Description:
Layout: H1 3-13, H2 28-34, E1 50-53, E2 58-61, E3 67-69, H3 87-107, E4 115-116, E5 122-123, H4 128-170, H5 175-190, H6 199-213, H7 220-227, H8 231-245, H9 255-264, H10 269-285, H11 293-307, H12 314-321, H13 325-337, H14 339-342, H15 345-348
Antiparallel strand pairs: 1-2, 2-3, 4-5
Helix pairs in contact: 3-4, 4-5, 4-6, 5-6, 6-7, 6-8, 9-10, 9-11, 10-11, 11-12, 11-13, 12-13
Amino acid sequence: MAPTELATSLQAIMPPPAIDTRYTAPAASERTVSRVTVICPDCRNMAPKLIHDFASGDLLCADCNTVIGDRLIDSRSAWRSTAKISRQAEEDARMLMSLQTIATQTHDTTSSTSSQSDSGSNSPVATGKDAILSRALRSRTHGRAAAQRHERQERNLVRAFNEISAACATMDLPRIIDDTARDLYKRVDAENLHRGKSIDAIIATCIFLACRQKSLPRTFKEICALTKVPRKDIGRTFKFLKEKLGAEAGPMSSDDLMARFCANLSLLSSAQECAVMLNQMAKQRDTLAGKSPVSIAGACIYMASHLVGQPRDAKVISHVAGVSEVTIKNSYKLLFADRHQLVSEEMLRVSPMASIEFLPTP
């Protein structure tokens, strides 16, 4: 057999050799393609200085500013902003890092200690770095609680001021009453006297005190009708604040109430003038000694309105004055019994229609 035929026969019989596919060297053409040389098409510079403009995605030639390539992808590491992290969280993170640094520095010099509780049982105590972090975090918590408490007090103070202003505006009280009532409430808040007290009662009492101090008194009934606070609560709070603040309430006289009561009853000036004169004469003779200013004012107005021919019913006057009809009539009985000494010629000259005969018999 010829050598050529023998080789062919052996090749057909023997299996093909195994090929290691773990690594295959790149072909020569592939190696040539992977090595790319960039040439500027304008200045034909074989080694141009390249500028990577990632903002626009362009590859520029530094010599002639020609765009060589585009759609570049910025493969550099990018820092993502944490805009959603709150300012408080950032402050906490910085504080915690600083505390950890301090704790690490002082950890070697801090010895481990333990203490026994008051009940006699042993309990572990944080020491070293943990103790420093624990104290700092407790301090931070207390600081936040204090800030929240202060903010809450400020909100309550603003609310009270707004209610005082609204009440004073409803009653047509001057600005000085508003300011005085605010000052009183601020003192109550500063000394924490409202603890356990009704805020509405405190506000009503501050307005009542302010009116008394500025000689523009209002009755308990008027304040009650305005603030919807029971009279008993205002009276109790009034005594409490007067004692604690040492606030001078200012005397409330019947003369201070005459003008307002007469205006609310639509009486003429002659009736008001006669009522004031009756009040002065009753004081000189102690006719109504021991009676409240509101009762005295109501009784004098009742008598003066009939005296000058502008009669007003005791029930209507009691509604305006805030006292009972019986109280006004009982005080009027005392005035009527002393009418000849109280009614002077000067009173009768106030109005041409004035006559003592117009007075009703109690």
